Structure formats: C-alpha cells, structure tokens
Amino acid sequence: MKYLTEYRDADVVEKYINELHKITTQHWNIMEVCGGQTHSLVKNGLLSMMPDKINMIHGPGCPVCVTPLNLIDKAIYLAEEKNVILCSFGDMLRVPGSKKSLLEAKANGADVRILYSPLEAVKIAKDNPNREVVFFAVGFETTAPANALSVLHAAREGLKNYSILTSHVLVPPAMEAILSDDTNIVQGFLGAGHVCTIMGLEEYYPIVENYKTPIVVTGFEPVDLLQGIVMLIKQLEKGEYKLENQYSRVVNENGNEAARNIMEQVFETSSREWRGIGTIPYSGFDVKKELEQFDANKKFTINIPKAEESKECIAGEVLRGKKKPNQCPMFGTKCTPTFPLGAPMVSSEGACAAYYHFSQAGELQEA
Ligand code: SF4
Predict the structure, then answer these.
(1) Distance of CA 342 from the midpoint of ligand 1 (Å)
(2) Which of 12, 47, 173, 309 is 20 to 30 A from 73 (CA-CA)?
C-alpha cells in the first residue's frame, strides 16, 4: 500500500472487521495509548463495527489533557505578571487553568501568541530583544525534538531572552504505571506509531516481558488500527505476548537517531506530574542543568499556590480508562467544546472531544 486512500479503503476495513468477528471468542480490554488513535477510532465509526467483546479503553496519550493545572496557571502568571510573550500551540490556549485559560488571559491583554513551531518563538525572541519570550513546550516524545532544537537554536544565536516551560511526558512509563495499578484491566496495548517513529521499539520489549502483555505498534488510519487490533487479538486468543510492529512503513527498530540525539543534548529524564493521574517516576523531560538559562521554571520566580482540580470534571478517570467520556455527568451538558470544564473536551486529541464531535447517541460501547 502506498497511498492514503488505501488505508481508508472500505473493503479492507470490512475484511478486518469480519476477521475480528471470527477470531474473537472472549472479552478483551485493549488500550489505545494515543489520543490520535482514539479520534480515528471514534471518527471513523470503528468502535461500533467491532465485536462487543472488544472493549477499547482510551489511554492518557493526549499531551494537552495531562498538562498539570499548576503549569497552565504558571504560563498565565508569566504572561500576566512577568510581561513575557507567551507562545504555545493553539490547543493549550483554551484549556482551563484554575481561574482562567490562556485565551482569557490573551483577551484581557496578555501577550499570548499561537504558533505552529517552537522555532517561530526563537525568531520572536530575536526580533524582541527587550522582551522575555517563553514557549510552553507540551507534548510526548514526538514534539520533544523540535522543542529541544529551539533551545539549541537560541543557544547558538546567543539569545538571553528565550526559555521553555516544559510539560514533556513519556509514553512507556505511563504504560508501566497503568499495568502496575492493582485495579488495571488492560490486557493489551496499541502502541503509538508516531512516538515509536522517534524512539524506536527498544523501550517496549521489557514492558511486554515484565508484564506479559502484548503490544502492537500501529498507525492512525482505519486500516492501520484494525490490522493492529487483529494482530493483538490473535496474540491474546493464543495466550501470547509479543511486541509487533504494524506501522513498519514508518517505524523502524531504532527510531530516528538524529531526533533522539537532539533531545539528549537538551533534556534529561525526570519524574513528572500528569494531570488527573498523579506523579509517574521518570515519565518526563526537564531541561538539563547546563542549559537552565533556557528553563522558564528556573529563570523566573513563580510563586503561585497549587490549585485544586474541578470536582465536576472526571478527566482523571477518563485518562486512566476507568470511565468513557459519555459516562461523565457533565458530558455534552455543562461541558462542551465551547464551554469546556476539562482539557479532554478542548484538545484535538482529547477523548471527550472525540466523543462529542464524532459519536452518535447510543452508538458507543459502555465501559
Ligand atoms: S466531559 Fe468534560 S467534565 Fe467530563 S471528563 Fe470530559 S472534560 Fe471533564
């Protein structure tokens, strides 16, 4: 297959759906880690076509959703109180902080800018030598290389007014945290193809072995996902646990070594708080000590109280796969994309947004 349409071919989709109905003999709980996979499953109506025995659990793979409330408050504080030019990707702007969102801060006059690349933020810093510029660096292993590159560019340019506020999270430690939880029901994972494009497959072998849980790395198109689910169900039905790579047209064993090299120059692994989930050891990236002049957390004194999460939003349970978005009492009533109570309703990778935009009433399976 070479062309995108082939990965959306209705006949091929039907073939895999039929195969799933044939090979699935018992109930299986599978987690798709990535929010992009969740959106594709929901948007393309795949959940309702699959056997009822397959329960797809939506994982915590939406970087905007897991960015802690406190960091959003810090970004707002920097924009409002420290007069910095605060740059971010668009999704972050509408996520509610404890009192307001970055978008509301912008509406109130703060200099908050939406960018498509952190390198644009470096250019803004170069063009505004009298202003501090902070890039809110959110994301998984996929966005980390570009954010790291922005730091290297700023260092090469000798810029003193550029820094990043990091909220980088890593997928494998989150999978281990899910599997280690006493209440875990996940029996197999669809691994996120774009993360493995950067990181390769190495980190996943120990997870498969230690937790005796199969992982199939997949892409994001309907045929990718269904082929990956077929591969996973075949393993589960046979009692096997292996790492398999459905996305081999993009993901290779070693990943992208150049990208990893850039990350390694700038970041070091650290414990990281995930919104709604808690702190997971070694699950994030911080800027290395020798580059701390580019770390907004170190550069600015940010004294703000740690705020409480909204009691109404059950995003933590959604992100841990304990509840489906449409089981939240606020879903589609008090919480909509226009008036979101939590990040999963805002982000383009959020599970609540996927259900809101693409699901038909009654079509989606219950947890
Ligand atoms: S529907 Fe809204 S309130 Fe409910 S979990 Fe999702 S984001 Fe939170």
Answers:
(1) 5
(2) 173
Q: What's the CA gap between 122 and 137, in Å, rounded?
A: 13
Please name the helix (run of DSSP H) or strand (run of DSSP E) that holds residue 80, with its range, or none.
helix 69-81
Its pTM stands at: 0.91
**What is the per-residue pLDDT for 201?**
97
CB 321 within 8 A of CB 311: no
Ligand 1: centre distance to CA 227 (Å): 30
pLDDT surpassing 50 at residue 233: yes
| 3-class DSSP string for 201-229 | CCCHHHHHHHHCCCEEEECCCHHHHHHHH
CA-only gyration radius of the chain, Å: 21
DSSP letter (8 states) at residue 27:
-
| Structure confidence by residue, pLDDT tens digits, 255-305 | 999 999 999 999 999 999 998 889 999 999 999 999 999 999 999 998 898
Give the residue whose CA is nearest to atom 8 of ligand 1. 313
Q: Answer yes or no: is the C-beta of 262 below 6 A from any ligand 1 atom.
A: no
Quick one: CA torsion of 254, 119, 59, 3, rounded to 10 degrees? Answer: -60
